Amino acid sequence: IAITDHLRYFPGSADRDFVVLDGIECNDNDYRPGRVCHITGVGFSAPPPDIPRNTPPQQIIDALRSCGAWVTLAHPAWSLMHHQDALDLRGYDALEVYSTISDTYAGRGDSAGYADILASAGRPVLLTCVDDSHFHDRDALRAFVMVSAPALGREPILEGLRQGRFYASNGPLISAIRMGGGVVEVECPQPMARIRFMSNAQWSARRVVEGPVRSAQYTLMPQESWIRIECEDECGRVAYSPFLPMDVCRRESR
């Protein structure tokens, strides 16, 4: 887990069975629509300086990155951020595409639209799902990232995050993603109610594959410059792939 308390740096801890990443959450926050911006940092090389409440968001990002942190723009849908706000900010590594507390307590948990706007502007970012648990009841133990790492430890986990070797979910699992020859294929261990291949094409009759289905494939169109996958189970929970590397997707050998 990562502890990202508001305006309070947690130094983290680790043993051979459990890792708690160091982290913090910083606020630009007066609760008027369009002015709320929450930003988290984890995996610091040095403790961050004091970052007062309502520090401008770009200054927050710059301060966190100067200390080696992996930086995420948190729950922009809950924050009612304008899309242009997300585009104007620079230097963050990931976008929080789903937040459990934003879903269960505010009804605005899904921020996938922001991810697609960024990608369409040529700025695909990594995607995370988190609980952001405050009350430890219905906002806990639902959202996660599944990281590919050689060992359970602080540095292997952080390296997997920084290199984008993970997918995000609030329930379903993804077994495999295969790419090549202009075709993208996904497999899940359990049947999905539907699988969506999201891209910069406004229209595709093949984008949504209705289930129950454990696997699906999609043939890229010439105009598509980015693609990601959503796997939705019968309860409406979703696993989000990262944005897939288009050079690999279009490579002839599979």
Number of strands: 14
Terminal residue distance: 35 Å
Compressed to H and E, one letter per element, the order equals: EEEEHEHHEHHEEHEEEEEEH
Q: Compute the gyration radius: what is it?
A: 18 Å
Secondary-structure-derived class: alpha+beta
- Mean pLDDT comes to 94
Rough outline:
globular
- Biggest β-sheet description: 7 strands, antiparallel
Low-pLDDT stretches are none
Beta percentage is: 25-35%
Q: How many helices does DSSP assign?
A: 7
Estimate the helix proportion, in percent.
10-25%
Layout of SSEs?
Layout: E1 13-14, E2 19-20, E3 23-28, E4 37-42, H1 57-66, E5 70-74, H2 76-79, H3 83-88, E6 94-99, H4 100-106, H5 112-120, E7 126-130, E8 144-147, H6 154-162, E9 166-169, E10 176-180, E11 183-199, E12 208-219, E13 227-232, E14 238-240, H7 246-250
Parallel strand pairs: 5-6, 6-7
Antiparallel strand pairs: 1-2, 3-4, 4-5, 8-9, 9-14, 10-11, 11-12, 11-13, 13-14
Description of the molecule:
The chain has 254 residues and is an alpha+beta fold. 20% of the residues lie in helices and 33% in strands. The chain has seven helices and 14 strands. It has helices spanning 57-66, 76-79, 83-88, 100-106, 112-120, 154-162, 246-250; strands at residues 13-14, 19-20, 23-28, 37-42, 70-74, 94-99, 126-130, 144-147, 166-169, 176-180, 183-199, 208-219, 227-232, 238-240. The strands form three sheets. Strands 8, 9, 10, 11, 12, 13 and 14 form a seven-stranded antiparallel beta sheet that branches. Strands 3-4-5-6-7 form a five-stranded mixed beta sheet. Strand 13 (227-232) and strand 14 form a beta hairpin. The chain is globular, with a radius of gyration of 18 Å. It starts with 12 loop residues before the first strand and ends with a helix. The model has no long low-confidence stretch (mean pLDDT 94).
